[in-house]
Amino acid sequence: MRFSPGVGALVAGVAAASLTAVPQPARGHGHHTTVAEISFRPERQTLEVSLLVTDDDLRRALHEDGPLDDRRLAAWLRSSFKVEGPQGSLPMRWVGREESRRGHWLHFEIHDVRTLTGTTLNHEVLLATEPFAFHTVKLLRPGVRPLVSTLDGTHRRLHLGAASPPASLSRNVKDHQETPGD
User: Fold this and answer.
1) What is the pLDDT of residue 177?
2) What is the sign of the dihedral through the CA atoms of 51, 168, 122 and 140?
3) Fewer CB within 10 A of the terminal residue: the chain, N end or C end?
4) Which residue in 141, 73, 147 sits closest to 103, CA to CA?
C-alpha cells in the first residue's frame, strides 16, 4: 500500500498542535498517533486497512514487553477499530504485520462492505492507554480524491460514506506516493 507525504505532514502538524493545546502527562514521548490507510474495494465488498502504530504505543496498549502475538493483535484490533455498516458490525480478517523504522504496520480487511453509505468507523486504537492520541485516516475510494481525516479522543467516529467529515477534521491531499516500509 502507498501513502502520500501529505499524510506525514498532517500527522506532524496534529502532533505539534496537541503538545501545545492539551496538557500531557509525563511519558517517554509527548504525542501518540496512528496513521491508517483504508482502501475501499467495492468489487470485493472489502475495506483493506493498513494501520501504523509506533512500537512503544503498541506495546503499552497490549501490555506486552516480549514478542508480539498476531492473534492477540487481531483481537485488540477487533475491539478498538470497529466498522459498522447499515446491517451492523462488519467482520474483520487479520492479514499480517510488518515492522519498519516508524513502527508496526498492521494489515487487515473489513468484509461485507456493500456500500460506504451508512458505514462508520469507530477508531479507539490507543485511547485506553493514551486518551489524547490522534489518528490520521486516509480513505481511498475508486474515482474519488483521497479523503484525509484526523480523529482524536473526542472525535472517534468517521462516516465513511459522507462526502467529507466536518471541515475542522479533514482535508483532501494530493496523492503523492510513499511506501509503508519507510
Assistant:
1) 33
2) negative
3) C
4) 73
